[in-house]
């Protein structure tokens, strides 16, 4: 118990004293995860809406793939992305491996099924006759989709939170594609693993505490938006 308390005190000390390395790691963690989540929203939400509203052969098969991907092990994603970005791999010419861009790519792959799957569920839980009512009022296909997305905006915010939570906390893929390089690709999760391996448990607890604070701050902001939009 004393070790945990010491770690919390150390975490506050590192934040309040504006430790440059800790702040650099924290900002990189936020940057990588935020960009990965945003890129996933741009692709995952439209794909989820399409799968939820469309009817075509094999649709259930594709939805099953998405649902399976929601539990995809990050270390598997890290392995696949590493192979693709390896110097002899299909994308090796881009020289992205062991860069923040590679970490963003890996995290986006992890978050994509989460966002897409929750989007499918959010659209499908809407009243079945809502789409018919909107179309009966003369709305175009694009307007109909927009109205349905607006109606599902609260669970879609949950998709944002789930996607961000899935990538800010993952470690396996980040280590594999980023390499945990000091000053370049070291983030809070990989730094925590490294410090734990060296037996510096106080520092590891401090970094974990900062990670929890960061995750809570982002989710608190999104929750405030979600609850403000909640129907009364």
Write up this protein:
With 232 residues, the protein is mainly α. The protein has a domain of 161 residues: MetI-like fold. It contains 11 helices and no strands. Helix 4 crosses helix 5 and helix 6 crosses helix 7. The longest helix is centred in the first third of the chain and has 34 residues. The radius of gyration is 20 Å and the shape is globular. The relative contact order is 0.17. The model has no long low-confidence stretch (mean pLDDT 86).
What is the strand and helix layout of this fold?
Elements: H1 2-16, H2 20-53, H3 59-69, H4 74-85, H5 100-124, H6 130-136, H7 141-151, H8 153-168, H9 172-178, H10 188-197, H11 201-228
Helix pairs in contact: 1-11, 2-5, 2-8, 3-5, 4-5, 4-9, 5-8, 5-9, 6-7, 8-11, 10-11
Summarize the structure.
This protein is mainly alpha-helical and 232 residues long.
Radius of gyration: 20 Å
Strand portion, in percent?
under 5%
> How much helix, percentage-wise, in residues?
over 70%
Would you tell me the overall average pLDDT?
Answer: 86
The CATH topology label of the domain at 24-184 is: MetI-like fold
**N to C succession of SSEs:** HHHHHHHHHHH
Could you give the count of β-strands? Answer: 0
Query: What's the main sheet like?
Result: none
Give the distance, in angstroms, between the N- and C-terminal Cα atoms: 43 Å
CATH architecture of the domain at 24-184: Orthogonal Bundle
Shape: globular
- CATH class of the domain at 24-184 equals Mainly Alpha
The helix tally amounts to 11
- Low-confidence parts, pLDDT < 50 over ≥5 residues? none
**Helix and strand composition category:** mainly alpha
CATH superfamily of the domain at 24-184: MetI-like
